Amino acid sequence: MERDIYDEDHEAFRDLVKDFIKRHVTNEAIERWNAEGEIDRATMLAAGEAGLIGLSVPEEFGGAGMLQDYRFRTVVMEETIAAGAGSLAGALGIQDDLAVPYLVHMGTQEQKAKWLPRMATGEIIGALAMTEPGAGSDLRGIKTTAKKVDGGYLVNGSKTFISSGATADILVTFVKTGEGNRPDAFSLVLVESGMEGFEHGKKLHKMGFQGHDTAELSFTDVFVPDENLVGGKEGLGFVQLMMNLPLERLSIAVAGAAAAQAGYDWTVAYAKDREAFGERIIDFQNTRFQIADMSATVDALWAYVDRALLAYKDGKLSAEEAAKVKFWATEREWEVLDAGVQLHGGYGYITEYPIARAFLDARVHRIYGGTNEIMRDIVSRQIAGKR
Ligand SMILES: Cc1cc2nc3c(=O)[nH]c(=O)nc-3n(C[C@H](O)[C@H](O)[C@H](O)COP(=O)(O)OP(=O)(O)OC[C@H]3O[C@@H](n4cnc5c(N)ncnc54)[C@H](O)[C@@H]3O)c2cc1C
């Protein structure tokens, strides 16, 4: 089914992204990222130079000024995932969807001026550090504290599962600045790589997204100056996280739809090419039926995700609607990629093939950004009229 959410500006931007991919997303680069467990800085800088980063950063701070129009980010996601570079899609997504928004929408003027121009070029890599060994879904259970001292805060604690955590220069870090677990007991502070007492821990070995780093972090009496308190006011951290949730969830839904689309396209091409019993795989009725199902699912995915993209652009995507599209899209993604792996036979299990990598990457879409169980809880609580 033809999609109709893009105009000529988006398509012109797509050409630019494709050109970047032609130059920088080679099989050799993908293998290198996977071997090193991170996207190298040169690639991030090249992405910045090509205009693929900082899409929501206002023009005055060196960005593209797209603020609420997530369609440009969707183009980046579609093209990088279709190129078999899910890890690059992930790294660009962390920068633009999880780190940059806290400065664009919630930073002070000084914070914006200090960080955004270099985040838009890829010179400064950002990350969002919320999860801890003992608190993921239940974020109010975090133990990392930021104690007020003269001129700033002393941060103590640890974080885990932080995407871009090994390579990030600046980490939007969720900390406790108050007692108890009321929403106003939390703040977001900007921890900078190199601050005394701050350590990027080890990179975690994951089943998917092999080329994008995920790491532990530790904080021992890290002095964070007052000027690094996001928004310049204490006690706003929980509300700030809530404000970015629709975007975070939408971005995962988009990644899911883009991966399902890519998986479908790879599978159709493969099934037309591969032969068994003297016939093309696609000539078997089972294959055709599977592909028909995949095709319908991909159409439905885009219809729903595109609707959410437009709602977001108009400022109308609620946290609940974003939760709904996140769990639904990532589960359809899983079905499509699973069928795609099956139709690739043994090759579907070999990570040299993009279908295998996309399948492994997809598994975490149902876990991070809030697990799909938590998404269902949010949606059903609202329906039930429960707080
Ligand atoms: C590759 C990767 C990248 C990540 N990137 C980041 C990042 O950049 N920044 C960051 O801060 N975090 C990140 N995370 C962390 C991620 O968001 C959490 O892992 C996720 O929110 C789940 O938290 P948890 O692992 O503590 O699981 P738990 O919260 O311990 O959940 C375990 C199980 O219990 C279920 N469960 C929990 N509570 C409920 C409930 N109320 N009702 C029903 N079921 C429930 C969950 O759904 C899950 O199935 C990342 C994780 C991974 C794996």
Automatic annotation (TrEMBL):
Which Pfam families would you find in this protein's record? Acyl-CoA_dh_1 (PF00441), Acyl-CoA_dh_M (PF02770), Acyl-CoA_dh_N (PF02771)
Residues forming the Acyl-CoA dehydrogenase/oxidase N-terminal domain are 8-123
Q: Which PROSITE patterns match?
A: ACYL_COA_DH_1, ACYL_COA_DH_2
Residues in Acyl-CoA oxidase/dehydrogenase middle domain copies: 127-222
- Name its co-factor(s): FAD
What are the residue boundaries of the Acyl-CoA dehydrogenase/oxidase C-terminal domain, all occurrences included? 237-383
Q: For this UniProt record, give its keywords in alphabetical order, as a comma-separated list.
A: FAD, Flavoprotein, Oxidoreductase
| Keyword flag Oxidoreductase | yes
Taxonomic superkingdom:
Bacteria
Sorted alphabetically, which InterPro entries does this protein's record hold? Acyl-CoA_DH_CS, Acyl-CoA_Oxase/DH_mid-dom, Acyl-CoA_Oxase/DH_mid-dom_sf, AcylCo_DH-like_C, AcylCo_DH/oxidase_C, AcylCoA_DH/ox_N, AcylCoA_DH/ox_N_sf, AcylCoA_DH/oxidase_NM_dom_sf
Which family does the entry's similarity section mention? Answer: Belongs to the acyl-CoA dehydrogenase family.
Q: What is this protein called?
A: Acyl-CoA dehydrogenase family protein
